[in-house]
Amino acid sequence: MEDVVLEKVMEEVKKRLNQNTVDSSKAENAEIKREEKVMVSAVGLTEFVGTAVGDSVGLVIANVDSMLHEKMGIDKRFRSIGILGARTGAGPQIMAADEGVKATNTEIISVELARDTKGGAGHGSLIIFGAEDVSDARRAIEVSLKELNRTFGDVYSCDAGHLELQYTARASYAINKAFGAPVGKAFGLIVGAPAAIGVLMADTAVKTANVEIVSYASPSAGTAHSNEVIISVTGDSGAVRQAVIAAREVGMKVLKAMGQNPVSTTHPYI
């Protein structure tokens, strides 16, 4: 008799478990379908180009509204604009935009650094390309988004802070617009956060190789009050690269001494 009762109880438990599983599965599928609809809606926009690492998004406007065009101070030649924006990172986006300019008939209208990084120590960014033809604006954004996977390679982060290193053998107009770097010359960018690490990295870089300082920024001068020190250098390509690598090594040692293990966002390229 007890065995019969126990068997009936077990059957009832199984039924209820199966029902809960079905209900949970239905709810999950409904959520997935809802998210898919949102993504389809977003991708369906003609202005939408794509997304990339660093909470980056690429957009294009074929014909900017005349009032907005004037308020933004855009040259009348440029009816179309490409927009590269991000919540995390500025250096990688600027370096990626530099490749976008090289590959297309576009110009950099503006580069702005926002105090963001989703609560971290650094910047977000907003970069505007100007183009006479919308196809150029779109292509510039496509190239930039693709390059971000590379330019995030030497961005190392952890709870204690982050390091950001960038290098190019030939700077173009995005880097010139953002940092005043000479066009066509080798360029290196060195960022350390918290700012104390950045000071040491900057000193190490200029002592290591024969480079010229292009710009220096600290929390109250040249940044959006971010907890960083940022130095950019130019010179012979070999010297610039050597300076960047030396700065990276000392920065990594200090962050590790703070009990953290900074890791690359993607894959190092320098």
Can you give a write-up of this model?
It is a single chain. This protein has a 6-stranded antiparallel beta sheet, sandwiched between helices. A 5-stranded antiparallel beta sheet has the order 1-2-3-5-4. The model is unreliable at 32-38 (pLDDT under 50). By secondary structure, the protein is an alpha+beta fold. Helices cover 44% and strands 26% of the residues.
Q: What's the helix-strand series?
A: HEEHEHEEHEEHEHEEHE
Runs with pLDDT <50, length 5+?
32-38
Number of strands: 11
Tell me the overall shape.
Answer: flat
- How are strands sequenced across the largest beta sheet? 9-10-8-7-6-11
Structural class: alpha+beta
Q: Tell me the number of helical segments per DSSP (H or I, 4 or more residues long).
A: 7
In whole angstroms, the N-to-C terminal distance is 77 Å
Strand content: 25-35%
Largest sheet: 6 strands, antiparallel
Helix content: 40-55%
Radius of gyration: 25 Å
Report the mean per-residue pLDDT as an integer: 90
Question: How would you sum up this structure in a few lines?
Answer:
With 270 residues, the protein is α+β, with helices and mostly antiparallel strands.
Task: Considering the chains and any ligands shown, give keywords for the structure.
270 residues; alpha+beta; five-stranded antiparallel beta sheet
List the helices and strands and how they pair.
Elements: H1 2-43, E1 48-52, E2 56-61, H2 66-71, E3 80-86, H3 91-102, E4 107-115, E5 123-131, H4 134-151, E6 155-158, E7 161-168, H5 173-179, E8 186-193, H6 195-208, E9 212-217, E10 229-235, H7 237-257, E11 263-264
Antiparallel strand pairs: 1-2, 2-3, 3-5, 4-5, 6-7, 6-11, 7-8, 8-10, 9-10
Helix pairs in contact: 3-4, 3-5, 6-7
